[in-house]
Design brief:
CATH superfamily of chain B: Aldolase class I
Oligomer: heterodimer
CATH topology of chain B: TIM Barrel
Number of domains of chain B: 1
CATH class of chain B: Alpha Beta
Number of strands of chain B: 8
Strand order of the largest sheet of chain B: 1-2-3-4-5-6-7-8
Order of helices and strands of chain A: EEHHEHEHEHEHHEHEHHEHEHEEHEHHEH
Largest interface: A-B, 35 and 41 residues
Structural class of chain A: alpha/beta
Shape of chain A: globular
Radius of gyration of chain A: 19 Å
Chain lengths: 393, 255
Amino acid sequence: MTYNINDKGYYGEFGGAYIPEMLYPNVEELRQNYLKIMEQPSFKREFDLLLKDYVGRPSPLYFAKRLSKKYNTKIYLKREDLNHTGAHKVNNTIGQILMAQRLGKKRIIAETGAGQHGVATATVCALMGMECIVYMGEIDIARQAPNVARMKMLGAKVVPALSGSRTLKDATNEAIRDWINNPLDTHYIIGSVVGPHPYPDMVARFQAVVSEEIQWQLQDKEGKATPDYVIACVGGGSNAAGAFYHYLDNTNVKLIAVEAAGKGIHSGESAATSILGKEGIIHGSKTLLMQTDDGQITEPYSISAGLDYPGVGPMHAHLYKSGRAEFVSITDDEAMTAGLELSQLEGIIPAIETSHALAIFNQKKFKEDNIVVINLSGRGDKDLQNYIDHFKL
Amino acid sequence: MNRIQTKLQEDKKLLSIYFSAGYPSLNDTVKIIQNLEKSGVDMIEIGLPFSDPLADGPTIQASSTQALKNGMTTDVLFKQLKGIRKTVSIPLIIMGYFNPMLQYGVEAFCKTCQEIGIDGLIIPDLPVDVYNQEYKTIFEKYGLINVFLITPQTSIDRINFIDSISNGFIYMVSSASVTGNSSGFGKEQTDYFKRIASMNLKNPQIVGFGINNHTTFTQATEYAKGAIIGSAFIKHLTNGNIDTINAFTDNILKV
């Protein structure tokens, strides 16, 4: 059994491309070309070089000594927070901007929630001198002012999504509508392993550099390429997809996906899609999503703006349903506490998204000789105000 | 023969109207359908509202959102439509996104449609390939015609494939656009209308998106069998009321 995508664009029963006909030519062009382009030696060279010299890869695999001591296990942190722009998101935007160039596209659109993917997209557009339009929910624009300013400084146009709940899902709708209106010259850089096939697979492949590096870094440090556990937070799921990728079919490596429980799974304010979601279709993909009995998509909640997506990538829906990955939910409070703990034990302030993954140690005991890799997907600079408010610092 | 197929054989250009069920008020649905028929409309697309209508512009998004706020659901719509065939005889199509149908159960949805007397479905985000492999037999079992969209970017091969799967009409999207974008039709559109007409497809084409008055209706139907109006009609409902539908239709047809 494979846990990766099949040739029809599905992970098990999840995935596919449930898109209006208006999007078919764009998505089909990408589907027919993405693997060919990614295999071109010139593409690989340019991608690898930019990841090295521009992003600063490889990101370190850091043995967290004091954290390990506290929880009596061996904890490694994959330092995606040290990437240029402060998170794993840039791995994907570098890949997709090179893809867009090779497809002859002149104009880039993207959606963003907290603004991290928007910043990573605006960054690569500046790098390549391409027009950049980022759709962002009106409410998120108000909540994430520093990232809005960053995007503008990088030369991007930030367009408020005024429809629906005016957050990430609506920003995604607006980006899709823009693509319908501009089918020829535009590439849509989706920020996570969501959307119609081939996006989940393409984004996962660009993020796969994370687990590719973990393999050789762990080999160097521990004499074996496989940890006992790989743990990552999941909103749409791109950092988890990258961290899991090369371990998907090696069931000796246990995978743990951490979702945001918000104020509690059944509080009505949660983003724990695996528990609260049902099978359905969101943004062109068949997956698990939070919805009413009537099939209307509902608005999730998490203190972390990067985790409050009502769906989850189809890869993760499959990992959940097949039991390949264990899904754990962490509340706002648990995450914030874990973020503070990492700051004071290791001198690393994590993004609140990442803090959810770190909170696993208060829910689950690991053995002393277990090797546990946590994907430290982003740094906490953007979240300082949230931490300050929460802890009255 | 399905009512849609019968209607398509009439020797005239067809006017089809779309509206969001449950808008402006929850219980306007039946009255709007009845008034549309009385006003001389040939076919009606009843929009099943969805929270995230990807292919729709601001007007239909807003009417959809309002309809949901008013309390519209799949069940409510089916209850409202029960008995509709006692008073309405023109073809009725339900247009909606796939997720609400999936949650209702595709077969249960189709079965209820048949019981009510719905003739066809338009589901923009159910791709023709998936329909063909997974759902075609169910739709056919309940006598429903599924209508597919083509756009100016759709390849000839794909148009031919869509034509081969269809057994009613082809919904010809006038330009690369979401609904409600309209500044009249230029040469690019008329060339596209001509190009499709010259393919001599087995299914007639009905043009949608961007038709909002008599001029665009006439342009669209010069080469196609009919035209569909959505956003412009919803604006009429927003600005006027459901008792002046006659005036709207007259204005399009200039009768």
